[in-house]
Amino acid sequence: MPIWVDADACPGVIKEILFRAAERTQIVTTLVANQYIATPPSKVISMVQVGSGFDVADNEIVKRVVAGDLVITSDIPLAAEVVDKGAQALSHRGESYTKETIRQRLNMRDFMETLRNSGVQTGGPGAMNHADRQTFANKLDQWIAKQQRHEQQVKTQGWEANL
C-alpha cells in the first residue's frame, strides 16, 4: 500500500525519515504539495505538484487515496476524509488518526478555531523535538511491519491455494 504525504507543511526531518523508509522497504511514497519539493532520485519516491489554492493538495490526496493506504498529515479535516475512505492517517508527530479518535480531534480543532476567531490567543504546537521524531518513526515502522505481514499472508495463502 502506498504512502501519501501532505508535503506543504511536512517538516524536513519527517520527509527524510519517509525517504529512508521508502527506499528500505520499496513502498511507493508520493509527496503532494502546492510548490515543488525536491525528492531523492528513486523508483519509489515521487512528487506531485498541484495548483495553488486552499485545500488543492488535500483534495488531490483524497482523490487518489484508497483503503489501506497511509496518509501523513497534521491536517485534521484531511485526516478525517482519508479515514472515512478506509485509509490510515498519521501526524508528523506520530499520532494515529482512527475512526474512533478523528471526530473528537475535529471537534477540538473547531473549538480552538472558534476561540482564535474570538480573539483568544491559543498558541500553536510546540517545535518538533527528538521524542516527536522518534514517535513518528516508531509508528511508521509499525505500519510498515503490519503491511509486510499482510503481504506475506497473502503470498502464503496464494501458495497454499495452488497446492
Notes on the protein architecture:
The chain is of the alpha/beta class and 163 residues long. It has helices spanning 12-25, 56-64, 76-84, 102-117, 130-161, and strands at 3-6, 29-33, 45-49, 70-72, 88-90, 96-97. It has a six-stranded mixed beta sheet, sandwiched between helices. Strand 4, helix 3 and strand 5 form a beta-alpha-beta unit. Helix 1 (12-25) runs parallel beside helix 5 and helix 3 (76-84) packs antiparallel against helix 4. The chain is globular, with a radius of gyration of 17 Å. The mean pLDDT is 88.
* Cα radius of gyration in angstroms: 17 Å
Distance between the ends: 27 Å
Strand content of the residues, in percent?
A: 5-15%
| Number of E strands | 6
Low-confidence stretches: none
Q: Overall pLDDT, averaged? A: 88
Sheet with the most strands, sense and barrel status? 6 strands, mixed
Helix content: 40-55%
Label the overall shape. Answer: globular
Order the strands across the largest sheet as they lie in space: 3-2-1-4-5-6
Q: What count of helical segments does DSSP give?
A: 5
List SSEs in N-to-C order: EHEEHEHEEHH
Q: Structural class of the secondary structure composition?
A: alpha/beta
